[in-house]
Design a protein that fits this description.
mainly alpha
């Protein structure tokens, strides 16, 4: 954002220039200077209060001799007030106060529109708010609060960011599925792989774990469905081997034969060849 420049107006000069009407304009200048001092001190909350009061007082001044001073005050308030809201928003985002940050970014836009400040636009504010949502969603995801993560990132309307969060969540569930499978806890492996698929329907690894786990649980129809989706996404000897085995256990020797023939991994080929002698007739 552009650096805001503002002026501090000397009261004694105004008294000499405006004579009898000096009292009213002096009060406006004093109020503006209070806001300016708060602004310089980075006390933006107080600056907003004082500058808004100064602006309101300035537009009420009816004095042609004070026009230049009044216009200067109004011009500076129009820049400084929205800027102050935006700075507060950024500070809150850095402190992890994400909801408050979004609120103040919206206030900065409202103020900019009210005062005709073109430095702060809807597009620039939306970009900043989306950045806040992205950080917040990532934190939710890292803490395992997946529903909140998805809900938050969806507010951005950014498909790429949404996909990134979903894939992160899917990868987390996939890792848990792999751990369960290694421990031969096939029920948990199946559940976790299903959750991974719910967030990333193109994870061939999740479909493979689901298929193998369902086979171990003797749920052969479910195993076939998962493994067919796996090989549709990415062909692999391991998937074809387990798919052949699932079809064999489900009584479909023709399909079993077709899949065993596609196994080209030396570690699995011997077993596949042995099963082909049974099903390929």
């Amino acid at each position: 954002m552009k650096q805001v420049k503002f002026l501090l107006l000397p009261l004694f000069a105004l008294v000499i220039s405006f004579g009898a009407k000096a009292q009213d304009i002096n009060a406006v200048v004093e109020q503006f200077n209070k806001g300016s001092e708060a602004f310089e001190a980075e006390n933006y909350q107080q600056a907003i209060v004082d500058l808004e009061a100064a602006y309101t007082a300035a537009i009420a001044v009816i004095d042609e001799e004070a026009t230049e001073t009044v216009d200067g005050i109004k011009a500076n308030c129009k820049k400084m007030i929205p800027f102050s809201y935006s700075v507060i928003a950024g500070s809150m985002a850095n402190e992890g106060k994400y909801d408050e940050a979004v609120d103040y970014y919206n206030k900065s836009l409202t103020a900019a529109q009210k005062y005709g400040n073109t430095d702060i636009t809807k597009e620039s504010v939306t970009e900043k708010i989306n950045s806040v949502y992205s950080v917040q969603a990532n934190n939710y995801a890292k803490n395992g609060e997946f529903a909140k993560a998805v809900e938050t990132i969806s507010k951005t309307g950014d498909n790429e960011a949404i996909e990134k969060i979903n894939k992160y969540i899917a990868a987390t569930y996939l890792k848990e599925a792999q751990t369960a499978q290694k421990a031969k806890d096939y029920k948990t492996a199946a559940e976790k792989s299903k959750q991974a698929i719910a967030y990333n329907s193109e994870s061939e690894s999740a479909y493979l774990i689901l298929g193998v786990s369902c086979s171990q649980l003797k749920q052969y129809k479910n195993a076939i469905d998962a493994l067919e989706k796996c090989v549709a996404l990415k062909e692999s000897a391991q998937a074809y081997y387990y798919l052949g085995a699932a079809y064999q256990q489900n009584g479909n020797n023709a399909k079993a034969c077709q899949n065993y023939k596609k196994v080209n991994d030396p570690k699995l080929s011997a077993n596949a060849q042995a099963q082909m002698k049974v099903v390929c007739k």
